[in-house]
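Feature request, filed as a ticket because there's no other form

It would be nice if the structure record came with a short human-readable summary line next to the tokens. Right now we just get the raw output. Example of a typical job, pasted below so the devs can see what we mean:
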Amino acid sequence: MSGHNRSGDRLARFADPDRMGVLIGIVLLITAGTFVFAPTLVGYPLVALVVVVLSGWLRRQAATARSLALAATVATVLVLGLITIYLLVKSIPAFRTMGLDIIVKGEPFWKPNSGVFSLVPMIWGTVITTLIATLIAGPLGVAGAVFIAEMAPGWARGALKPAVEALAGIPSIVYGFIGFTVLSPFMSDNFGLPTLGSLLVVGVVIGAMALPTVVSVAEDAIDNVPGAMKDGSLALGATDWQTTTDVTLPAAFSGVSAAVLLGVGRAVGETMAATVILANVTELPDPLFDVFGNTITLTSLIASQYGIASGTHLSALFAAGVVLFVTVLVLSLGSQYVERRMQRVVGGEE
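Raw output as currently delivered:
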């Protein structure tokens, strides 16, 4: 009898949530280490991991699910950290060679054969195309979200919302190809541009690509505004439009601003559309604000030159990746700050 009790105690300890999490973590670490140092043998710990997870799932689903969620979170953070470290390490030779000149140096800008690497034209091209895309996706996206959430009848909303979400799934290369074959020739024929590609065309295409993201996220934010707030405004005599502009949009401002910043983030990081449309011109447009000019963005620089780069040239492309990474990180932190601040303001904490 006592032996049976001891066996039951061992089984209970094995199924304990903390022990199960530790066991899954150990097997995951062994699997990851085997993948890195002995990839041909990774099948064995992987099978062990599957067995442990299935056993835990049959015995304690909640504990196993919690352990797997924790493992996924830790893996995500580790991958992000490793990517960051890898980018920084690979970009060190370029920063050591150029110093701050890599982001501020004047002409000549980009001469790989001469060991000159300045990202000024690429940063400028990214800024201009992002501004154009934001001017398109921001107002149109918010207007579309307001219409779908507040004005459209039920049948129209049921058709428009899935259509907008489907547009977000179209590959960027398709948008870029349409821009190259339709918009670029149109601009060249009607405005006498010397080349097919231009910053304006890229900005318009990227803005159209970011538009579904802005509409979808902003519509969700507007739709989540409590109905009691809208009903109270209407009960006080406000019109539907006054309720939308004075109550709904301010209450949803944090979500709407996050939607716009998400769209900007996509515009900053867009690669294929810019690569397809723009020529590989590593010079600033003349004049500087000529949106009909042709230059290059940070993403299109990496996409067009990584196959032929080596040494410091390749390191300079990693430096462009670092600039992109920092830019998107700042946008993300900015969106979180705006969201928290607006939540405090709307909640009456300020």
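Something like this underneath would help us a lot:
Residues 10-15 have pLDDT under 50 and may be disordered.
The longest helix spans residues 61-98.
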